[in-house]
Amino acid sequence: KQEVTQIPAALSVPEGENLVLNCSFTDSAIYNLQWFRQDPGKGLTSLLLIQSSQREQTSGRLNASLDKSSGRSTLYIAASQPGDSATYLCAVIMVNDMRFGAGTRLTVKP
Amino acid sequence: DAGVIQSPRHEVTEMGQEVTLRCKPISGHDYLFWYRQTMMRGLELLIYFNNNVPIDDSGMPEDRFSAKMPNASFSTLKIQPSEPRDSAVYFCASRGAGASYEQYFGPGTRLTVT
């Protein structure tokens, strides 16, 4: 059974810092991996999707990498801002299933 | 497209009552997923449909939960009778047939059962 783990569970950084969020999964037979952002009381906003044939994806200050063989993905956030404060979830996509990690709660202090 | 639409956004009901959550997927998407999010268990897949047909309902917690998709633009998740432990946020997501398998989530329904 696929298990997805995110480390750390919570992270607090001062504004302007670069940071890395980690996601690991136990079964490397995945199709894609997707990173989401969730604000308190809100739904999920898709940030980046990495297809299994890709190694990384970039969108603005965000860069996500995928290493299927080691079962790992990272989300890199450059020059963090208070508006980046949210919970970040990674999700592993199999054929017709999607497993989520528990998320990393990020706080960026002004 | 307006994205995935869910209603109601908030529902408060008493234990034992029937609850019906509604979802309208993105037009043209042929997969629809229902998820539940709680603090204890995170996000869990309950059931998903392909072309209006339920494919996997192994995540449905018990017989009190049922889901239907009578047509390509509408799905319901029903809880009867509801219990306090059903309190959670319920998300609906849809996906097209493309190779990316990317899912698009609705805003969720926050259910509170007292």
How would you portray this structure in words?
- The complex is a heterodimer of chains A (110) and B (114).
- Chain A contains no helices and eleven strands.
- With 110 residues, chain A is mainly β.
- In chain B, the strands form two sheets. In chain B, strands 2, 4, 5, 6, 9, 10 and 11 form a seven-stranded mixed beta sheet that branches. Chain B has a four-stranded antiparallel beta sheet with strand order 1-3-8-7, with no helix packed on it.
- In chain B, a hairpin with an 8-residue loop joins strand 9 and strand 10 (104-105).
- Classes of the chains: A mainly beta (110), B mainly beta (114).
- The interface between A and B is medium-sized, with 23 and 21 residues.
Radius of gyration of chain B: 13 Å
Main sheet record of chain B:
7 strands, mixed
The helix tally of chain B amounts to 0
**What do the pLDDT scores of chain A average to?**
93
Q: Biggest interface and which pair forms it?
A: A-B, 23 and 21 residues
Query: Helix count of chain A?
Result: 0
Shape of chain A: globular
Spell out the helices and strands of chain A N to C.
Answer: EEEEEEEEEEE
The quaternary state of the protein chains shown equals: heterodimer
Shape call of chain B: globular
| Residues in helix, % of chain A | under 10%
- End-to-end CA span of chain B: 36 Å
Instruction: Give the low-confidence spans of chain A.
Output: none
Q: Could you tell me the mean pLDDT of chain B?
A: 93
Q: Cα distance, first to last residue of chain A?
A: 41 Å
